[in-house]
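During the reporting period the student researcher (J.K.) took over the structure-prediction task from the postdoctoral fellow and processed the backlog of single-chain submissions. One of the processed entries is reproduced below for the supervisory committee.
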Amino acid sequence: MRAATTTIWTLIPTQLPTLTRRCPRCDAPRTFACTGRVRVNANGKRLDAWLLLACVGCERSLRLTVHERVEVRSLPPGHLDALHRNDAATVARLAQQLVGEEASSSPAAVAIRGAVPEPPFVAVIRCESGAQLRLDRVLAQALGLSRAEVRRRWRQGWIAAVPEDGRALARRARDGQRIWVGG
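J.K. obtained the following structure tokens:
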């Protein structure tokens, strides 16, 4: 398989992940959405930091621990400043790490940035801030095809993973993954 062009498709989360937990105020399972804010508390040389989420029903806050009783000097340079500023990229990365597999965000919450040249080409996938989406959804969204059409073209060999992986469509797209799209 030889491609005339190489392009980069960047997967960008369009919303922060959400979490479903029992809300004590609503007394029911509710969705907690990330507020995009971090609370930092210091006592002497020790620091605590939490990612804040809010119940979509009553806005009661939920804290997910980012740092617990760590020495300020042990943090990477610039990290504490990013926490103080509620830096969007840092908050998105922390939200993805802390919410992780429990996330209840819809799979459509990822945008794909990058050109779609004329086939044949190789697309290299880059995942920003923990964006996760199945490969068949990535291809359908990027190529403007239905998922059924993507699967049909996959079986016919018009679309393939480099190196070959027969189950790649059913898995999440990985950072650095290469996809060949033929004409």
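The committee noted the following: The chain has a mean pLDDT of 87.
J.K. will present the remaining backlog at the next meeting.
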